[in-house]
Every structure is written in C-alpha cells, then in structure tokens.
Amino acid sequence: MTHVRLRAQGQRLVLDHRDQSREFTALWLRERSPDPQTRDPRTGQRLIEAAELPLDLRLEAADVSGAALALRFADGHRCEVPLEELLEVPIDPPRRLWDAAGAPTPQADFAAALQDDGALLALLEALHRDGFVLVSGVPAKEDGMRPLIDRIGPLRRTNWGGIADVKSVADAYDLTMTQRGLEPHTDNPYRDPIPGYIWLHCLTNAAEGGDNTLVDGYMAARRLRERDPVAFDCLTRVRPGFRYRDDTTHLESEGPLIELDSQGEPVRVRYSNRTERVPALAPETLDTYYAARRAFYELITGDELTLHLKLAPGQMLIMDNYRLFHGRRAYQLAGGVRHLRQGYVDRDSTASRRRVLRRQAEPHAQGEPA
C-alpha cells in the first residue's frame, strides 16, 4: 500500500510505500513536475527557471492516483508525478566487488558482441559489474579491436594517437614499453578527464612471464576502511599531483588516491608511482599520508587481492580505469615478440551505450506488455 501525508504547513510531503518511507520538499516536487509547461515532452528538459520558484512554496493537496501522485501547489500548479520517479529505482545495477579468492571470470565473444545487441549488452553489463571483461576472437591485426570500439566509442585520442603499441622498444618513452614489471597502477591520472576504460588487445605473446595483474580498487578501499580508518580518511582528503612530460607534451592533474561519491563510497581510485608528485604539505600531513599510502600499497600488491591473467593472441582485456589497478610481471622474450595494442574509451559513451541497450531490451520498449 502507498500513503502520503503533508507536514510543515505543506512544505514537506511524506511518502510511505511498503516498507519504505521518504520525505520530499514541495519545491523539489514542483521543479520536477512532468507536465508539458514545466518539462519539454520530447527532451525531458526543464522549461521553467527553477531558481525563480518561491522558496516557501507549499503543497495544498496530495493524493495517490493509480501509479502516480496527484499534487496541487499553493501557486495553483497541478501535476501528476509517477511513483517510480520517487521510489529510488537505481539507474545502474550494483557492482560486484571481488578479491583473489572470489574473482569472477567475465568473458565475451568479439564477433557476437559486434553483431548482436544482446551480446554487446551482456559484455557491457559484465564490465560495469566486475570492472573488467576478457574478450576472445579479436582479429589478429593492429586495429582489430576498432570495430567493437566503434559500436560503443568513440575512441579516445591522446598525445600517443588512437590505438597505440605496447611492446618493448629501444629508447622507450614510457616504462610500459620495456620488459620490466609494472606495479599496480591506474592509467593517466595526469589527464583531465582521466580515460575511463582501457582496451588491451594481444597480437602475439612469445614471452616468459609478462602476466597481467588486476586488483579491484573498490575492494581494496573497503578493506582499508575496515582495517585502518585513519589511513582511509587520509587518502580521501590529500590530493597528490600527477605529471607526464616529454618533448611535445606536458600534462598535470591532481586527485585523491581514493575518491568518494556523494554517499561516501569509492567512485574512483588512483595510483601511479611513476607519475605521482606529492606537494610539500605540512610535515604532519605528509607523515600520515606516507603511512596511509604504504598501507594501501601493501593491499594492492598482496596476494589477497591480486588476480593473474596471461593474454593469448586474439584475446583482449577491457578494464575500468576508475576502479581497477592493473600491472604486469617482468618478462623475457622467448625467441619472438610480445606485441599488444592499447586504446581508451571514455566512461560517458560506454555508460550511455549500456543504458540505451538495456532500455531497448525491456519488454515495453518492444511494444510488449510491461
């Protein structure tokens, strides 16, 4: 059953629905009114200037009308607001956090995702849920992953171009282009915005070692908060800088190693030992930060959270660069070449594609009964 009641002389509305109770201000309800005088019917964008509404606006009446609330405001405005808009139905499904013992193995087929919207949606849902997905059957050519990027994209271009090589070269401009191991890190924290998803495609892999490592940064943040709240708090507040510079490029940005959303939950992690530049903060602050960073480092490099993968030719790893730390073990070439290709796709286009595909897959979107 659904019940509503007004309080605070009509400036508040309390909605009781099953075991959920929520309270709304009259002004919030008025500016979200779905009528065509308030919101454009085609775009859903607001037509009125919300900042000009009376700050003391009141509701004079509120009644349940089927699957909506019928509202009458003191300024004479009337509307019906669908209950589903008020009951906090999540836009996105929850994420599944994992450690080494419980790590998932989300997989997808390149050709299927390229040809079928349902398969593409499954790939994108897995990527959102688990933070990564392993794609098989990618054509063994330099831009083999490009057609699937174009189904989601666009491809994010950087100072290195679009899709770039990841292989050992002489006079490497980045440590990625050597045979050394790489500590767990996130890519490009010196950019604004930071690239959202990393696409890593294996062409050949005649190497001893070179396994990829993955760590769920959200799980690492959760473990740190449970075990060392002081360290967790420090890493959400101190904002180190990050810098990349070469002959033609100079990039700088800053941000906390653990960034929280409005609900106090991790929404982005950063770690880049190669590019971090901590400012000369107060000594006491630095002492706390360095101890906190050490605690976080020990978590993200330990066996407890680390998943090991070795890509074979024709496989591709798509990783959430806001959530996962990735690295690799050092390698030696075994009479051949280790050649991977890497590109970036931003979060907004990826999330948009997933949400549109899910909406199209819903029964009512196909003209079937909801």
TrEMBL record:
Q: In what residue span(s) does the TauD/TfdA-like domain sit? A: 104-344
Organism of origin is Halomonas salifodinae
The top EC class, named as a word, is oxidoreductase
Tell me its cofactors: L-ascorbate; Fe(2+)
GO terms of molecular function: dioxygenase activity
The record, for InterPro entries, names: AlphaKG_dependent_hydroxylases (IPR050411), GBBH-like_N (IPR010376), GBBH-like_N_sf (IPR038492), TauD-like_sf (IPR042098), TauD/TfdA-like (IPR003819)
- Please name the Gene3D superfamilies in this protein's record: 3.30.2020.30, Clavaminate synthase-like
Its function?
Answer: Converts trimethyllysine (TML) into hydroxytrimethyllysine (HTML).
EC number(s) on record? 1.14.11.8
Under which name does UniProt file this protein? trimethyllysine dioxygenase
Task: Give a yes or no for keyword Phosphoprotein in this entry.
Answer: no
The Gamma-butyrobetaine hydroxylase-like N-terminal domain covers 5-78
The record's keywords, sorted A to Z, are: Dioxygenase, Iron, Metal-binding, Oxidoreductase
| Family named by the database record | Belongs to the gamma-BBH/TMLD family.
Reactions accelerated catalytically: N(6),N(6),N(6)-trimethyl-L-lysine + 2-oxoglutarate + O2 = (3S)-3-hydroxy-N(6),N(6),N(6)-trimethyl-L-lysine + succinate + CO2
Q: Where is this region: Disordered?
A: 349-370
Highest taxon above the source species: Bacteria
**Entry-linked SUPFAM superfamilies:** Clavaminate synthase-like
